[in-house]
Structures are given as C-alpha cells and as structure tokens.
Task: structure prediction
Amino acid sequence: MEPHDSMQHDDELMEIDPAPASTTTRPPKRLPHPPRQRPLYENCSVYAPDGVTLLFRCARKKVNWYLSRDLARPLGDTDPPSIALTFTPAGSGRAADAWYLESKTPHCVICGTPDSLITVSVVPHQYRRHLPLCVKSHSNLDTLPVCIPCHAAYDAQVRKACATLAAHYGVPLEGTPWIAASQQVRSARKAAGALLNPRAKIPEQACAELWGKVRAVLGDGEIAEHDLRALAESKDVVRGPGFVEHGEAVVRAVLAERARAVFATHGVPDTLEMGTGQKPPSANGAHGPTGKVGVVRPVPLPADQDPVVAFVVMWRKHFLAVARPQCMSLHYDVHADVFNH
Result:
C-alpha cells in the first residue's frame, strides 16, 4: 500500500478537560513493547463451495483446521494456500467487506516501515479487554500494525484522551479506590529496606526491633529475601475494598448507557455483558457444516443511538486524527460494523 493523504480526519474529539490529579494516586505502569515475532497477516483465502466467491482471509492454522476435518478442499498449489469449503456455510462471512478480503502486507500504517512492528488496539487495551466478545472477537479492523517509534508518539496522545474519559466518567486513570497504607505497613516497609541494605551495620537489638516490625506484617513464619524485598518495594497506597480499574469502570458506564437506551427503545433488558458470553462465530460465520455456534447477540439499536458503537467509532476517529496514518488501506472505514454477528 502506497502512502496517501486522502484519509479524512476528525479533529473535534474529546474536548472535556482532563481530570485533576489525585493526592493518593499511582501512575499506571507502562512496559516497553517487544517487536512482534509471528506473522501478522498470512493472507490465506477461503472460498465458498463454488471455488469462486471469496468469503474471508485467515491464517494457515485455520486452513489446516478445515482441511484436517475434510471441511474444505485445496484450490491448487498456491502460497499462501487457498481452499474451498465443502459445505454451505450459515453466513456469507466477509464476502461484502473489502477490508477483510484484501491481501494485506505487514507495515506500519502510520509511516510505512516493515520493521519493529507491534499490534496496536485502536480502542486501547484497557477498555477493549472489557468489551463484549461480539465486539472484540474475529475483528482486525481495530488492531493495526504500528512500528515502535510511531507507537511512542501515538501512545502519548492516547493517554491524553484517556484522561479526558477519566474526567467525563469520574474514574481516575489509576482506578479507584486507593487507600493509604497503615502506619504499621509503612514502618515495616522501612524496616525491610534497612534489613536488605548490605552496607548497613545494625546493632543486634536494633536488628531485632526491625524484624519485629516486619513480622508484625508478614507473620511469624519463615520470611525469605524475596518476601522482604516485596515488602520494601510496596507503596504508600494500596487498593481499597471494591477496587475497580479505570478501563473496566468506563466500559461498565458505556454498557449501562446502552442498557438504558435498549430499555427505552424496546422495553427489554440488554444482552451485552462485560467481555463474557459464548464464543461468537468466526469471520466466515460457520465453524462446521451446520454453522451452529452459540453467540450473545446485542439487542439492536440504530447505530447513531448506540453508546457502544459511539465509543468504538470515537476511538477509530481518534486514531485517524492524532496518528494521521499515511499507509492505511483505503478500505478502512470508521463506521464499519462494530458488532460481529
């Protein structure tokens, strides 16, 4: 895919002021991302029984799954392989969706480099992991390849957007609630640090007092060095009762908004749950000749009135607006289906 500038961007996003810093907060731990080792796209083709209608593309593992069960036949000796199903699938898969049918190359969608790639969740992982399965399964529209340097710049903008959501929903980025550690724990932490200091020459009586403070927290059993180290590195604040992570709280709020909209429209409870439910169907709409697979289907709402759709589309627009990808497929559509039926 050649770089292009024709992608439309939406800069009018997330205009709520960030939340003020809390006095008992702990910044989220951010770890470096190792480059992806496994192939991102294998571009194997799965056709309808007629051998003409392309249903979807997939990895070699899925092709082998179909062939090993005599659910497909090979179409020539191609690389990547192509197969035709030997049964009539329950659905048409992605046959009408150009994004899922095109052959993709592994490169950073922002700058185009094929090196040092990781996959980035357009809806950040702290939220995506809590979304219902019918939103996040069998969909690569919202997981894109980005190189590590481009990701660093984009991630800074993501943190700003998350701060805006924190203010909007009243949920701190570090989760809530945090409570101050007790004076006993703080004293034991300092004592553990002193006992671990190899240069410290602690008198016998003082050493016994330090161990007394440690045992008051860790108990009278055997205390290994790693136990001491963990205590010494503990924080001044700890998670309080009923602690909820920021991402979970935000998704709960979005699903609650949808539940209210569903009830107001249909007079029935919503069926969507937090990242739970039976496994939805694969991209082809069939796991076997019958195509019968349990799935939690959302109660339908108009797309422009669905808070879950609005949440995902908001993040898609945010990615285009702040990352400004120059090597994105022209078939990427921020308004593409959010739910995988």
